[in-house]
Amino acid sequence: MLRYAASCLPTCPGSRTVGIETEWLVVDRAASDRSVPPESTRAALAALIGRPAKASRQDPTARAASASGTVGGDASATEPTGAALAEGSRITFEPGGQLELSGPPAPLPLAVSRLADDLADVRAALADAGLGLAGMGLDPVRPPVRWLADRYAAMAGYWTANGQEAGEVMMCSSASVQVNLDAGHDSLDVARRWRLAHQLRPVLTAMFAASPARLGALTGLRSARAQVWESLDPTRTRPVGPAQVAAADVACHWAEYLLAARLMMVRDSPPDGPGPGDPDETGPRGALPHDANGHGDARLVSVRDGSTFGDWLRGAGPIGRPPMLDDLVLHATTVFPPVRPRGWLEIRYLDAQPFDLWMVPVAVTAALLDDPVAAAGAASACCDADEGWLTASVHGLADDTLRTAALTCMDLALDALGRLGAGSDLCAAVARFRDDYPARGRTPADHLAERFTQVGPAGLLREETR
Asked: Do 183 and 168 fall into the same domain?
């Protein structure tokens, strides 16, 4: 168990890379209050998906390409690894039809430019079919509709059995920007980056809050998406251990987290893999591509008896057979802490952003963690806001402590971006965001809420569609 947990936090000497996952609400421009099934989106993208990716962009081991999305789901309805685009990004779908575009890891400037190019192609293809993409953390008007089955049917069964209606909202109505960063150069660096990724959570949650409405009404929150996550099963959504841990303890806390988390689903027949303690155990990069749809003819079934993975290891699990390595890998994709170890650090707490603002949280997060000067300054700036993430989801940057920390972090990030080789366009986008939002004590949610009041929920969704 500990070996697997440690494999999720490998040290990575050399240059830093960034993997980006952007999720989008798909909108029918002629009927913005109607849900769009993924089959319609795929049909609109058929010609685009059919193009060969540039040879230099194809990377079957790319971490973002094999990542399985906000809710740890299948890569797509029919393809476990999604469909690669010209610049190497992959298209996958969330259970409510949200489109996810995931770029391969690369240095920050290249990662952003490649994803931006593929996103432009996707938007153009969708526009030809009367569809578009809207960026915000929660759908402001449409009720959750689940289109994809198998894994998601088992997941829905788990939420229903536990009386957690918010599970359907999370699966089918939410969207995020996920930033995937190297775990660290060595064990001390892993611990430092782990601590800072958690310290930044309140400030970044507040600064990039973009989900003020749901089901046709304003919620009174800046990030209602963050509150949805807070209302779910804490054994799988709370942070992994304390943020302040020694270098050797991060993997131990991850192992303990996996053992204590309740089982969400299991395969009804054993996979063809070794057990968690077997010597040929492999890490997450080898296991992730086949964790989406099960093994062979195995069927995924929801677990409703409250048993944990630790219970299963002790012989008190939901089925008679002992767990195997692939069962552990599957289980690890069904827990959703704010920062998840997956062979890299998966930053999961950022709302999807309007327009092309998605690149700003990516750039800021990467700059604050990857640049040593910015990292030290951010750790100091965020110490007073370290436990304030619930305040962040409610008040955003109207909270003075969070606003002060956000401005400091933005200035640190802007200084760091030049050292990281970011181009003038990306630096200008971050600078504009700083002046439009943190400098004014505002967030994207404030803009969205104002437009919601002026044009209504369907009008907002239509207006935000690109």
From this structure: yes
